[in-house]
Specification:
alpha+beta; 5-stranded antiparallel sheet; 25% helix; 31% strand; globular
Length: 320
């Protein structure tokens, strides 16, 4: 009897494994070739901007990918029907945090009155391993923080050890993997002004840049919109940083790839959020599973990564 039961269990397990494998094989065909346009848009945006864009390229032509990721050529700001709800006001630290909700996304916005309190935190072990945003915030004795620049992965470990481009902390270039090449940087000068644009290492010194990382694209420059169409990066979790005319710094973190919570945002959506908050300058930061906001030792947004906080090289933090 026991032997028969064991055989039944093995058959059931085998049947389940077969169906799981079969379903796994079918999923990409359903996503990329199926009739569900919204699912296709999310999938293409997620995969095409990941480290493995060749996956979507195996199923769709370049023309179809371009159509999905950049569905129109309109430019300028759109009037967002953006829901805003203040959830934290810390007058002693000059920080306000608001929940935001758009048509397809939910997220958080942080407003910091004193721009000189925004600093760059860098992993203590550049070239060895990155750190979680919560650790980078704690290590600086900071109140809040968001993920900052991107990183490259020469060893295939994906541990956030190498910040990409130019990285500046306290006025010193702490990492440079581009030599004399000019790259798009985002950072603060010695007056607390958010600076965007292409610079090389020498120009960073000449312009008194105190804190900076490398990323793109710029969203708003001197009050003018920079994104055409949807931005061409699909729909995904997003992080960005901007500044108002009065110096107030704006952090934006948008959740994504969670159909029951928040699908995510296009670059145009992110630009329009900053416009809604009267940003005169704003830029996109690393997104996807890196997108994260930490405040008072807690992760404030809903992370897409099922493994929790990602190990990254840099974060913009708010010091006391």
């Amino acid at each position: 009897m026991r032997k028969k039961n064991r055989i039944k269990i093995k058959r059931i397990l085998g049947f389940l494994m077969y169906n799981i494998i079969f379903a796994g094989i079918l999923v990409p065909f359903i996503l990329f070739w199926g009739p569900f346009e919204s699912l296709k848009t999310v999938a293409v945006g997620a995969v095409a901007t990941s480290r493995h864009p060749q996956v979507v390229e195996a199923f769709l032509s370049q023309e179809e990918i371009s159509r999905i990721m950049n569905s129109n050529n309109a430019s300028g700001f759109d009037g967002l029907d953006l829901g805003r709800k203040e959830v934290i006001t810390d007058k002693t630290s000059g920080i306000t945090i608001e929940d935001i909700q758009g048509r397809s996304f939910k997220g958080k916005v942080v407003l910091i009155k004193d721009p000189k309190r925004v600093k760059l935190a860098v992993t203590k072990e550049i070239g060895v391993t990155g750190e979680r945003v919560s650790d980078l915030v704690k290590g600086m004795g900071a109140i809040a923080g968001i993920n900052a620049g991107g990183f490259y992965d020469p060893n295939g470990k994906g541990n956030g050890a190498f910040p990409d481009g130019l990285t500046v902390k306290d006025g010193e270039i702490v990492h440079n993997n581009v030599g004399d090449k000019a790259v798009n940087i985002v950072g603060f000068n010695d007056q607390g002004k958010l600076i965007l644009g292409k610079m090389n290492a020498k120009q960073l010194v000449e312009k008194n840049i105190r804190e900076a990382v490398t990323f793109e694209p710029n969203l708003i420059v001197d009050g003018k919109p920079m994104i055409t169409g949807d931005g061409g990066w699909g729909i995904a979790p997003r992080t960005g940083i901007g500044q108002k005319a009065d110096g107030t710094v704006i952090f934006v973190v948008i959740d994504g790839r969670q159909p029951t919570w928040s699908i995510g945002a296009t670059l145009r959506d992110l630009m329009n959020v900053f416009a809604d908050y009267d940003a005169v300058n704003a830029i996109n930061l690393d997104g996807g599973s890196s997108s994260e906001l930490v405040y008072d030792g807690k992760v404030m947004n809903k992370l897409w990564n099922i493994f929790g906080e990602r190990y990254i090289p840099t974060a913009f933090v708010v010091t006391p």
